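Homework help board

Subject: predicted structure for assignment chain

Our instructor gave us this sequence and asked us to write out the predicted structure in token form, then describe one feature. I got the tokens but I'm not sure how to describe them. Can anyone check?
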Amino acid sequence: MTYQFLEPLKLANGVVLKNRIVFPPTTLRSSFATGVVTDEEVEYYRLRAGGPGMVIVEMAYVSEQGKSYIGQLGADSDDKIAGLKKIADVIKERGSVPVLQISFGGRIAQEEAVPNGEIVAPSNLPGHHLETHIPRALTHEEIEQSIQDFASATRRAIEAGYAGVEIHGANMYMIQQFFSEHANDRTDQWGGSIEKRMTYGLRVLDAIVATRDEFADENFIIGYRQSPEEPTTPGIRYPDALLMAAEIAKRPISYFHLSIKYANQSPFMDKEDNEPLYAKYKAVLGAVPLIIVGLVRTPQQAETLIQAGVDAVAIGRELIIDPNWVQKVRTHDEVGIRYAISPSDFELLKIPEPLRQWLLTRFKKGLVVTTDEDFNPNEPWK
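My token output:
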């Protein structure tokens, strides 16, 4: 079978990816305590690069205050550039395009990860989960500084040899917090109306574009990741998210990355709406390519999304299980694709210990393990 997802994809800035499969950011939690890259991280990415057209390296914090968890990658100071370069280099050597995701944790950060255990956020509102801490609201000056921190992290990514950066505006991190009424009840220029709640994310994007213009050129990729809904009231609903996506698309971004649980899902907060979210986004993004993620495992599933109009498919868990997934599809060796992981192969697959634990717990949804009681070797993709 000839798959369209194996064909090249031209991003909005003109950069061409060799295919339409993306390795999305995966949380390794394996950097040194200082945020410096470890050899484990380098080897993890070396093994998974080569097949996908683009590899998005897990989120790197842009400042110490913006750190999210212990073991997170750092892009907050120039001494991190050498380590970041090691990952970019191995991805390029294998033939994929390296992009670094950059982020600020905010109210969902671990207290032990940030200076003095002080959690900051747009407002002093607790998070979605019970028994979460009450963050301190950022001052106007701190907000402005954090925007510059995103810009500085972008400059470091350029110096480290990355082909681009992805702005992490999804998964309840700081940029999403500013956009959400659940996290932002400010009454100044940073909150209130939907337009004001968009301000922070758009200012971050504008600062990154300016940094690209100063230190790189139009070939430097700028991506934006967004979550379309929140399961709370108040909270983000997809019509508002689409309004922000439309504003983002007016700026010189290279692609838009939609972060959802299932790639073909419709809005979970509106059960009467059966239209897939990716279709709604395609309608507002115009010429900006859309990357979709969400428990895609088989070539048939990826191809169905491409045929439906999605521009690229991000495959995470499956490329952790089988780093050669793309190569096997390309060489007509689909019967050789592994859809289940054996705990005995964690070391062989260069999976760092912290990620091993998450794969068996928090990331277990959609991950087939050969030691599962209900494991079916005849249909391991189910």
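Reply (TA_rk): Your tokens look well-formed. For the description, you could write something like this. The chain has eleven helices and 13 strands. That's the kind of observation they're looking for.
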